Amino acid sequence: MPSVMLKKNGEGKLVFYVPKKDLEEVAESIEFDRPDKWGGEVVLGDGSKYYFEPMDVPPTFPITLRAKRIDD
Hints:
The chain is mostly beta strands. The chain has a single domain (3-70), classed as CATH 2.40.50.240. It is built from no helices and seven strands.
C-alpha cells in the first residue's frame, strides 16, 4: 500500500501524487465525497484506480494517506 499525497488544485479538484512512482494525476471520480463520508474507490485521469478506507468526514488538504491500488 503506497503512501499518497492528496491536495486540491486551483479548480478545487483532487490531485493525487504517488512519490515512489512520480505519478501526479487529477482524480476523475471518488466513490464517497459527502460531508458524512469520504473515500472509497478513486479513479484517476490515466484510468488507474486506488482505494482509501472511507472516513466519517472529509480530510483537510493537503494530506498523506495509505492507498491500495486496484487492478482490473
